[in-house]
Amino acid sequence: MFSGMLFIFLPLIVGYLIPVRKDSVLQFIHAQTSRLVLVILSLMGLSLAGLDNLGENLSQILLYTITFFLCISASNLLVLPLLDKRYPLKTEHGHQQLPKAKMLLESAKLILVVAVGLIAGLLLNMDLSWVDRASEIILLLLLFLIGIQLRNSGMTLRQILLNKQGMLIALVIIATSLPGGLLAAWLLGIPLNHGLAMASGFGWYSLAGILMGDGLGPVYGGASFLNELLRELVALTMIPAVISRFPNTAIGYAGATAMDFTLPIIQNCGGIRCVPIAIVSGFILSLLVPVLMLFFLSL
């Protein structure tokens, strides 16, 4: 049962064991990771083009996306404000907000890549039997590079353990997302382990969509990708509006992206005190995305 999980998880472990000290090498790895994400998302689009009854499957993808997004977000937002009441965090005001248009454009680019793959598959009428195999190979390489990135992200175990608020935010996101996934699975009438896997993306839309697509097919992959992407888009809009009163909520809802994509806007809107908490929370969630998702997919 766990052999498939171990086969996919092994490159991540191997990558995490590799220390990289040269900034130029790390920059090269970051660039290649970004390119591989674009390649594999285009392959996801091709996979969608190969589905029978495409219109019906697209409707199913949207239904899954909306259901999981509403259930998981509601579950998160019911509990996160309690953290702000119990463990208040002082923020700094007067920071210049970063233009969200640039960040939204980056997200739109990923949607466009999937759309281009879908359109190419529909128009070219090509043999798509090779797509799944190619996606698996690229996925293994991508996980290897992600492992290296996580190892060399600058976070030590001591720094993580000392930042209890960041750890607490991450634990709340995990503890509330999984019940939200179970509720969505019950409403949709799908296996509960599929719901738990869908709930384990924590905002990392590229990896979540890839892992779900590899494990359960393009319908789940597309739904997971859109679900986590929608979470990030809402977070980009929500963080400037709520972080002054509810910093824990803003950081927590950003999920795994709090350590990278949404970190600049968290810093600029909430101040430097929010940064270590966001990095620790985002790091823990990023590390657990492949662990939990692959575990639930193996059940």
From TrEMBL:
Name of the featured protein = Lysine exporter LysO family protein
The superkingdom of the source organism is Bacteria
The record ties this protein, via InterPro entries, to: LysO
Q: Per the UniProt record, which residue ranges are transmembrane?
A: 6-24, 36-55, 61-83, 104-124, 130-148, 168-190, 202-221, 233-255, 275-297
What Pfam families does the record point to?
Answer: Lys_export
Q: Which UniProt keywords apply?
A: Membrane, Transmembrane, Transmembrane helix
